[in-house]
Automatic annotation (TrEMBL):
One of its GO terms (molecular function) is oxidoreductase activity, acting on the CH-OH group of donors, NAD or NADP as acceptor. The active site is at Y59. This is Glyoxal reductase. PANTHER family: 2,5-DIKETO-D-GLUCONIC ACID REDUCTASE, NADP-DEPENDENT OXIDOREDUCTASE DOMAIN-CONTAINING PROTEIN. InterPro entries: AKR, AKR5G, Aldo/ket_reductase_CS, NAD(P)_OxRdtase_dom_sf, NADP_OxRdtase_dom. The record marks K84 as: Lowers pKa of active site Tyr. Gene3D superfamilies: NADP-dependent oxidoreductase domain. Belongs to the aldo/keto reductase family. It comes from Maribacter litoralis. Its EC number is 1.1.1.-.
Amino acid sequence: MQNQTKITDIKGSFELRNGVQMPYLGLGTYQSDNDQEVVNAIKSAIKIGYRHIDTAAVYKNEEGVGKGIIESGIDRSELFLVSKVWNDDQGYDETLKAFDESLARLGVDYLDLYLIHWPVSGKYKETWKALEYLYAQKKIKAIGVSNFLQHHLEDLLKDCEIVPMVNQMEFHPYLVQQELIDYCNVNGIQYESWSPFMQGKVFELDICDDLAKKYNKSVAQIILRWNLQKCVVAIPKSVHENRIASNADIFDFELSDEDIAFLDGLETGERTGPDPDNFNF
């Protein structure tokens, strides 16, 4: 099941399996400081038109994100707000407590999406049961996972009542993982990318410069457009208003099928972040 949504504008969305609309372009806040930096980034993004904000407990900036939302003046109902339960807080009761703490820091009474941040062995199934409970209580509009490889998903699907609606993964031209994308599509799991710019390394690839010249766009805009045309939700992080605006200027062109295939073909399996099969935090 692959989303067939047309990529139209910054407020466009992909429909999750339960009918919830998830804006396909959002603002990431990883490594944004929990002070005026993240407050200003949120306000700038909302002013530009972003309606999807992604944070996590471990980012230590949920208070700033919440403050930015309040200061933006936008109605909470217009936003798609995402957070994640950290590894130390996994387990059933621990997750329920961590969720309440995230809500308190953000200053909201529900989340649009809550994710298990990493597949902590021996804990993620109990954590998922807590997410299912919170979803049933209507405290979350959608639930999902992050950094789950296919075998993690298969293991979770053996026992879960609700199939995850989203899987947020490291995704960029060197780490496409098309088989995992296909598996998620078949199971109605929306794929989402983190680190779409390979922590800046993508800007060092001369090969992407050719596409940037061809379309008269920046390398960042080419990569984000590639994400969206592959029906992958993108949440590029920036705290600079001009870059936040530039990252959203991707709706006046379309990559050809050949150029999408070219970017797909750059796959090397190289990660810029931790391996979901080998992390110790």
